[in-house]
Amino acid sequence: MKDGVRVVAWQEGQTIQADDALESAWAGIRAGLRRDVGARMFDQWLKPVRLGDYCPESQTLDLLVASDFSANFVSGQFGDRLRMAWRTAGVAVREVRVRRAPDTAGPRLLEVVHVEKPAAAPAPVVAASNFQPRHGFADFVVGDTNRLAFSAAQAMGAQAQPRFTPLFIHGGTGQGKTHLLHAIAADFSAHSPAAPVLYMSAERFMMEFVNAMRANETMAFKARLRAARLLLIDDIQFIAGKGSTQEEFLHTVNDLIDTGARIVVTADRAPQLLDGIDARILSRLAGGLVADIQPAALDLRLAILEAKRMVAGDPPVPDAVIDFLARSIRSNVRELEGAFNKLVAYGQLTGRAIDLDFAQQMLADAVRANARRITVDEIQKACAAHYRIDPAEMRSKRRARAVARPRQVAMYLAKKMTPRSLPEIGRIFGGRDHSTVIHAVRTIEALRESNPEIDADVRALLRQLEG
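Given the sequence above, the corresponding structure tokens read:
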């Protein structure tokens, strides 16, 4: 037994089933969820959820649903609530993953889990199946802001030995770092199924190391780590200030590099910006390839939403809503996908068609949270700089094409990007009437359809202002 949960030896081709302790805890959690979220929402989304495999090594539990869409929605809407409920349920569950049940899935990729073997001999790290298809390289939408990280991750997972190690990927929350780690593990395990793979968060690394020291099992811990041919560590910033943990991590990295193993590490910032991390570790991490993932630009956000729309089914999501989502939810990709899932789910629940008014109503809180207060003055200055005119021309009475067109673009952007009313915008542009603003907006909308140069100008200004 391990903290009230039965530990089952794992062999290739087998699964680890939840036991009575987990079933009992799940019954209580379900009752609390039904009370908290309401009977209708519970019956629609949470009642069909059933227990899946459990990994005692990482204390990770799978919750199974019928489809990828349901998995995305339940994870996005209830993931934090589920994790908190399980962590406080009195059983050894630290992490919860919502995934499509294997009997409804197509071909399954590999996901790394780690299971205790019998104590007779030190256990190598092993890889087990059940990896969500959406975590593969094929499902990672690539744009200019993540292309280097994507290409480097593909090289790290490929059969040919990469020319660099370690690979250090950094970027903000929800931008796709963990997705790439899972995709690397999947590709690597596909061509080298017998090669030991180890994936864990830096926090988990620290906890296991501390536990091993307390139990006088540090040698077994070291052996397990050094057996890995692919080591993936997520969120390395969480070992900041932990001296003994950092020392062990450094020795692990050095030994693995010496034996030709592959190492991938992620963090929320570049190596040189990590405070409280040993300089020797930073030197090792920066000595491979450092690739960043910047916040998704508008074009990439549109591409991500288009990819989701292609597989979402009914109700259809019109272009206007896709454009609204891409422009309104800019903080991270995970939140963008969650907003899309919420719209589709509520459309299915209520039977209402998804249109712009519906999207604005349902996502008002998310839009407010993402709003950056772009001012008309910022827009005027950006347009003046783009078209190389004096900013004062935005408010002047001149009607020459060289200043009138940039002024119309600025009015169009002011209407599109700020909450200002038409009369307010007109007053800011030199006391013009609201009908002048309407004419400018309609003119630029028409020109974007017929004039590629104007459309390119507007896109460039939108990227600049939203950035």
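The first helix runs from residue 20 to 37. Try to locate this feature in the token string yourself.
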